[in-house]
UniProtKB/TrEMBL annotation:
Coiled coil: none annotated. Residues 579-614 are annotated as: Disordered. The keyword Iron does not apply. GO terms for cellular component: Sec62/Sec63 complex. It is a multi-pass membrane protein. It comes from Mycena venus. This is J domain-containing protein. It is found in: Endoplasmic reticulum membrane.
Length: 614
């Protein structure tokens, strides 16, 4: 029978509190696989109030751990040797002799009560000694102790509740109920309402303010408080010299705050030193650019604009790598660690050759460049397919899946040839059947991304040495678009965790899918697939794809054609019987057979032409 007891000593309650205090005071840390640049970086410090909370949490955690470490446990195993103060190797005769000595010292008739010990305490101590003595000398009691760890036999199970006993005391009920009512009826609804009516409801999933018009209307009547800020005139002069007076006049802006923001942004993109006074303001401004670009991307996606959508996507890596966008020429090699803009020719994209050049010069930066290239994210498209579950063709208005098979290849990696193995027809069919089953299982699943297989390695954090914060793992947008109408056919899919190429065989990739509805009209549609990186400049892939939506009659003819071909493949004896019947044709029937064969050939030609047009 279980015996529920409250925590009188408070030890279990301390374990409960330590569990919650162990994680919040410990902030997460990240590190880069590449060494730091010689350029000094401004460290992002925790706010003062958060640091104060962390210090208080660590102090409380250390105090509670020290208190728990010194607490005595009430659940110690019964040990008669320890109670009698003897070793475990003594014989029964020696135990009896030792107990007689203890009896002379602790027998109630030999000890007198005093201020420190009452007669009840003396009697209880002697009873404990007698019980320990019998546990070692009496066979029945000794067996109980050996089988049940106690001389009295099985003991009731005691289940402790990690709450102090004073919480359930009768005279404290009103205080406990009052605290519970305050917490559940006051504090919890306040927190939920603050979350619901606060920032969570006013912002989108990307952190963009949902009610921008209301915010602008509320901010309009108030005048900005002119605080003393460091001047940006010197930085503006450097930016103007770098981009040119004409270009700068068109992008600087009319308002003072617009001009200041553009100065700091272009100073970051041009990798200009703004000084310690403006570094924090610049970092805060740069860290907001992904949120603003995501907001613009949502606006462009809602209207299916292709050119603005691609332009916004291509801006992300420029801010990640601190490189100036168009009309300035793209400087791809400046993304490598420690490489300045003046060390290479504009338009050079041969990363491997540049790394070999540094190694030939015995440049100390060559090792860092090689490390960065090993973790680079050059996406390689294995295949782009259109699939309809359970169908061989795409009919108008059907649900179609755009299937993209991707893997990463470092820029300095050598081409990997697939392993050439000799296999017979049966092995090839089994391999194709396994690939088809894998693709079908993925299409029938609810996931947009195929699970990683054992051994596949994905890219870590983005190599972005100039980004003021920590960039997470790289992402790519998969966009299906119609260039002729300048429209986005399918909303972009953002993918990540693309595995690196290992062997280059048929299974060395990861599959992603996008669902959309086929056009309502029959015809041949020429589209284009864009794969754009959000972390590395120039890492973009484009492929032209064709989707054929035949008319209904064409679908029926192709269906019967495929069924007939499958029957001949599955039942080859039908073809052999037909061939035997043709051999038995008489001369008089030969002319009819020629005409029949001619008609069959014409029908086959029509069917093949229709299938080609499909």
């Amino acid at each position: 029978m279980a015996d529920y007891q409250y925590d009188e000593a408070g030890n279990m309650a301390l374990y409960f509190i330590i569990t919650f205090l162990a994680s919040p005071p410990h902030p997460p840390h990240r590190f880069s696989s590449t060494v730091s640049l010689p350029r000094k970086r401004t460290r992002v410090q925790l706010p003062r109030n958060k640091m104060l909370y962390a210090i208080i949490g660590w102090i409380a955690l250390a105090y509670l751990c020290r208190k728990v470490a010194g607490a005595q446990s009430d659940n110690a195993l019964y040990n008669p040797f320890e109670i009698l103060g003897i070793s475990t190797g003594l014989s029964e005769k020696e135990i009896k002799s030792h107990f007689r000595g203890l009896s002379k010292l602790y027998h109630p008739d030999k000890v007198r009560a005093n201020a420190n010990e009452t007669i009840e305490m003396i009697q209880d101590r002697f009873i404990i000694l007698i019980k320990a003595y019998k546990a070692l000398t009496d066979p029945v009691i000794r067996k109980n102790w050996q089988d049940h760890d106690h001389p009295d036999g099985p003991q009731p199970i005691r289940t402790g509740i990690a709450l102090p006993a004073w919480i359930v005391a009768d005279h404290n009920n009103i205080y406990v109920l009052g605290a519970y009512a305050t917490l559940m009826g006051g504090v919890l609804p306040t927190l939920v309402s603050h979350w619901w009516f606060g920032s969570s409801r006013q912002k989108t999933s990307d952190g963009i303010q949902a009610d921008v018009l209301r915010i602008l209307a509320l901010a309009y009547p108030f005048e900005a408080i002119h605080s003393v800020k460091e001047s940006t005139d010197a930085v503006e002069a450097e930016v103007c010299d770098a981009v040119g007076p004409t270009v700068w006049a068109g992008i600087a802006g009319e308002k003072a705050w617009q001009r200041r923001a553009m100065i700091l942004l272009y100073a970051y993109l041009l990798r200009l030193d703004v000084g310690t006074g403006l570094a924090k303001e610049q970092s805060t401004l740069v860290l907001q650019t992904p949120l603003l670009l995501n907001g613009l991307l949502r606006i462009s996606q809602a209207r299916n604009w292709l050119t603005p959508t691609l332009a916004i996507m291509r801006l992300h890596p420029f801010f990640a790598q601190a490189l100036p966008p168009a009309p300035a020429p793209i400087q791809h090699l400046a993304q490598l660690p420690g490489i300045k803009l003046s060390e290479f020719s504009v338009g050079d994209t041969n990363y491997a050759a540049f790394a070999r050049t540094l190694e030939a010069r015995l440049d100390e930066r060559a090792g860092d460049v090689r490390k960065a290239l090993c973790r680079w994210g050059h996406v390689e498209v294995v295949d782009v397919l259109f699939r309809v579950i359970g169908e061989q063709i795409i009919t108008p208005s059907s649900i179609v899946y755009l299937v993209v098979k991707l893997r990463l290849v470092p820029p300095d990696a050598e081409p990997v040839k697939p392993q050439e193995t000799e296999m017979d027809g049966e092995d090839a069919r089994q391999l194709a059947h396994a690939a088809e089953e894998r693709e079908t299982a993925f299409l029938n699943s609810r996931k947009d991304t195929e699970d990683l297989r054992p051994g596949q390695v994905v890219s870590g954090d983005v190599h972005a040495p100039f980004w003021p914060g920590t960039r997470s793992k790289p992402h790519w947008w998969v966009v299906l678009a119609d260039d002729k109408s300048n429209r986005v056919v399918v909303p972009p899919l953002k993918v990540t965790d693309v595995p690196f190429r290992r062997t280059g065989d048929w299974s060395d990739f990861r599959t992603y899918k996008v669902q959309f509805q086929a056009p309502q009209n029959a015809g041949l549609f020429t589209w284009r697939v864009y794969i754009v990186s959000d972390s590395y400049v120039g890492e973009e892939y484009v492929r032209d794809v064709t989707v054929s939506c035949p008319m209904f009659i064409h679908c029926v003819l192709r269906y019967f054609f495929l069924v007939g071909r499958c029957r001949l493949t599955r039942y080859p004896y039908l073809a052999s019987d037909a061939q035997g019947d043709e051999d038995e044709i008489t001369d008089s029937e030969a002319d009819i057979g020629v005409e029949s064969n001619t008609e069959d050939e014409e029908e086959s030609t029509v069917s093949d032409s229709e299938s080609d047009s499909d």
